[in-house]
Design brief:
The structure is a homodimer. Chain A folds into two domains: 5-43 and 285-394, Aspartate Aminotransferase, domain 1 (Alpha-Beta Complex), CATH 3.90.1150; 46-282, Aspartate Aminotransferase, domain 2 (3-Layer(aba) Sandwich), CATH 3.40.640.10. Chain A is 38% helix and 15% strand. Chain A is built from 13 helices and twelve strands. Chains A and B meet through helix 1, helix 3, helix 5, helix 6 and helix 9 of A and helix 1, helix 3, helix 5, helix 6 and helix 9 of B.
């Protein structure tokens, strides 16, 4: 009874694999600042649980496979504020952005097809693409360059006859890089010329700082037939456990294909959808508040990072991640050191080593991702611990 | 921008495709008895929403990828009453039984691998297997024989070097057939001899009638390494919209492989899991009540079906479905007739045509599935309408 080749090719989450070691450190009495996971500490808006508590149907019944109309309509209204106009049939509600990505790949990829992804990238793209029989082809970006990837020559060099899609996470996980509308236009042009789908993962849409506006691949009409937008309540509304996302496209053939998959798994959680509808109806002021908080945290993290001699990092423009190159020989060894050998007043820190975010063998060995999902004093202390840890690590022999 | 071959090979839900036509009938003022879908009218036990209303964490956070421990523990306790003993690592909580099946196939199937399924079968097995690159190989059963399939010769005749697994839905959807423990032993022997996984879809476990006991592939220790149990709260607790199921196996390599997929999609809905834990803790008396109601409905349906001259149907022993052969030339044409041309005092009826439940071309053209998910008077009237409809249909020229 062998396992499938695809599952043999998959990896365990590189973010989660250090958890047992962190647990040991905690069991031994150390305090660990968790800068490693994208689980915000921001309270989920109360409207979510309020809507659910008021749900009074006696039978928790299947929802429509495409989603509850009340949620689809709330999403339609939300996008109107960006002058993006959708209809219910353009939107399929999914179990998190994760399921939207899985469905998108299943609907487009045959064995051996390639999807372009700027690396470092959110590691589960590897899992989703592999599950569909696809191959991730990375577009390598660099810390020195702020992980910038909207470069025609570099993108075109990676395109082959097997390329099916280009995936853009903007604002980026793990880099925090944000595409400008001009860059979106450029990528759209390339996709048109090479007949590619564009998977636009925009779950951090509102989290753009320094006075810049949110951008979206959905803002350009001429690529509407090839754009597949991935959205989610997880990060925007700090509702990661609600497992509500959606897949949005104006390509009717594609949506019809995705609907076959959606019907197979019947539907998404009914009560989570009821709660999510209330979230999408929140006023714009909600984003302003959350954005201000994340921006302040980013500034704290960046300020503290800059105190580390030899760190390489450009201030990222969005999401709630910073990826940086550290002056250490091996980032995973350094993380092990932090958890097993280091402490400062009984405290240590955990980040996500970036190696797992790269598809290219050998890259990311001196990079880490920080999620700024804790309050400002915790973030400041967490990065300070990284700095103190580097000193101890590099002086340890 | 082509779609994937797999999604081209998938079909739209054959159960749902008549919905627009039924809607037209309703818009025209007809009352339609929906015997076509497995959405029970039984109230979801109040403990589900009570547990959720009492959930007071301020952040709706990710759950563990394998599931919330409180739910895993409730499932462990539930199975103890069947003398089946599991540990947390044997259980991965999934988004409905659907996701459990999807993950099971992804973890075991390579392109071209075959899975045996007695037909007629729950139609989404086709979608799940196809999504993983697999091929459904049917073991054909017959109405005349009560859709019985535990026959060594017939099963072995379908096995090839590419066979990876045998899938058993017991109690059955759409047939209502229930495997005895001796039949489970037989299938277990065959699986051992041919080194197959057994996917044991037991989401209707408690719905067995006529004084018989619930059976499970998990009751036999000697096949524990090859058995994958699919469970769900949807039917047992009438909580279809809660989207909580699980995949259970004592095969540690297999569970480790499934965990890679589970980590990729992060987790299952946190609050649905909180509610589901309360459901699994319900006392055995809950099943007794629900079972008595479904049994009474089955008896009503069967009694009314027997009034149809030429019907072929053996009384099924479990689940809440009956599949029967009707004296009509074409079941889909007959259903169209019921919805578009027929009524009795302004009422008509809808069932699921069985053609979509067969993988073998040409079978099921005179069979239908009824879900007895409405109260007894409605079920009686619904089947009466089928009888009256057949008279009108066969006399229509």
């Amino acid at each position: 009874m062998k396992l499938s080749n695809r599952v043999e090719a998959m990896q365990f989450s590189p973010i989660r694999k250090f958890n047992p070691i962190a647990q040991k450190a905690k069991d031994a009495g150390k305090k660990v600042y968790h800068l490693n996971i994208g689980q915000p500490d921001v309270e989920t808006p109360a409207v979510f649980m309020d809507a659910i508590r008021n749900f009074d149907q006696k039978v928790i019944a299947y929802a429509e496979s495409g989603g509850l109309p009340v949620l689809q309509d709330a999403i339609i209204d939300y996008f109107k504020s960006y002058d993006m106009h959708y209809q219910r049939e353009d939107i399929i509600i999914t179990t998190g952005g994760s399921e939207a990505l899985t469905m998108a790949f299943l609907a487009m990829i045959n064995d051996g097809d390639e999807v372009l992804i700027p690396e470092p990238f959110y590691t589960n793209y590897h899992t989703f693409a592999t599950a569909a029989g696809g191959k991730v082809v990375p577009i390598t970006t660099k810390a020195e360059d702020g992980y910038h990837y909207a470069k025609r020559e570099q993108i075109e060099a990676a395109i082959t006859p097997n390329t099916k899609a280009i995936c853009c996470i903007s604002p980026g996980n793990p880099t925090g890089a944000v595409l400008t509308l001009d860059e979106i236009k450029l990528i759209g042009e390339i996709a048109k010329e090479h007949d590619l789908y564009i998977i636009a993962d925009e779950v951090y849409r509102e989290f753009v700082y320094d006075g810049k506006d949110a951008t979206s691949f959905g803002m350009l009409d001429d690529i509407a037939d090839r754009v597949i937008i991935i959205d989610s309540v997880s990060k925007r509304f700090s509702a990661c456990g609600a497992r509500i996302g959606c897949l949005i496209s104006k390509n009717k053939d594609f949506m019809s294909a995705v609907m076959k998959i959606a019907q197979g798994r019947l539907c998404t959680s009914t009560i989570d959808q009821v709660g999510a509808a209330a979230l999408y109806k929140l006023p714009a002021s909600y984003y302003d508040e959350v954005k201000a908080e994340y921006c302040a945290r980013r500034d704290v993290v960046y300020e503290e990072l800059m105190k580390i001699p030899g760190v390489v990092c450009q201030k990222p423009g969005g999401s709630f991640y910073i990826t940086a190159k550290l002056p250490v020989d091996n980032i995973e060894n350094f993380l092990m050191f932090l958890l097993e050998e280091f402490d400062d007043n009984g405290e240590t820190v955990m980040f996500a080593p970036a190696e797992g975010f790269y598809a290219t063998e050998g890259l990311g060995k001196d990079e880490m991702r920080i999620a700024y999902v804790l309050d400002q004093p915790s973030m400041r202390r967490g990065v300070e611990l990284i700095r103190l840890g580097i000193e101890a690590y590099n002086n340890r022999k």
